[in-house]
Amino acid sequence: MAKGKEKGQKGKKITLKIAKNSIRISFDGGRRLDLSKMGITTFPKCILKLADVDELDLSRNMLKKIPSSIEKFQKLRWLDLHSNQLEELPKAIGKLQNLFYLNICNNKLTTKSLPEELNLLRNLRILNLGLNCLDSIPTSLGGLKELNEIGLFDNALTTIPNSVKKLPKLKKLNAKRNPFPDTTEQEEHADSVKRTETLYLVQDKDLCSSCLKMCQDERDKLNKLKNVTPSPSKKPSFPLLLTPNSTAKDNQEEW
């Protein structure tokens, strides 16, 4: 067998010139370094010279490891590493204090390979951990108080810690297709954050007088709408309109 094959597949070499030509301007005016879908197998060291970018996209490559030097991207707000072959994340990722978006979906990450330092990302709004090999979620992620969305779908989870489910600003939690003990619990986890959209049914006796009156008034309004029968539509009549085209030209807006 040839030596090249023994070492495995060799990815595309990214030069500084290629990297510079891959910088795009995002919709909000930030600078995005887009190196997605380039067949990269090792983190290109040359991009450390472009560490002042706001966004870094290394998704859909064949990366197995992200070096600790990722901490040099101090301005980074948006980091996309989804669809690689990552087996671990460096502790240094916790030093990216400006990060608000982190996508590490569709990799080979286990619970043990998630660094505790993830909970240092205090400005993180969106975290995607779906399609990995997680059998539990660290309770320390409950420290991400600014988190709005978290993806935990397609893992090996049997439960989700309350510290994560009860994050104060969480609006969306996707934990579908995990082996939760029963379907009821799975449905609860899959959509547990739609609490503001949930309809709670109560009896009249459980409501205070003002709330009861308000509900009764709303119900009466709905009943009135249901009982209203639509009047048959009548064809419009324009007895004085003899030459419609010329009249419409004179007063276009009215017609």
From TrEMBL:
Matching entries from PANTHER family are given as: LEUCINE-RICH REPEAT-CONTAINING PROTEIN 18-LIKE (PTHR48051:SF42), PTHR48051
Pfam families according to UniProt: LRR_14
Name of this chain's protein: Leucine rich repeat containing 18
What GO cellular-component annotations does this UniProt entry give? Answer: cytoplasm
Map out region (Disordered) in residue numbers: 225-255
In this chain the Disease resistance R13L4/SHOC-2-like LRR domain maps to 70-182
Q: Which UniProt keywords apply?
A: Leucine-rich repeat, Repeat
Signal peptide (UniProt feature, chain positions): none
Which species is listed as the source?
Accipiter nisus
InterPro entries reported for this sequence: Leu-rich_rpt, Leu-rich_rpt_typical-subtyp, LRR_dom_sf, LRR_domain-containing, LRR_R13L4/SHOC2-like
Regions of biased composition (Low complexity) lie at 229-244
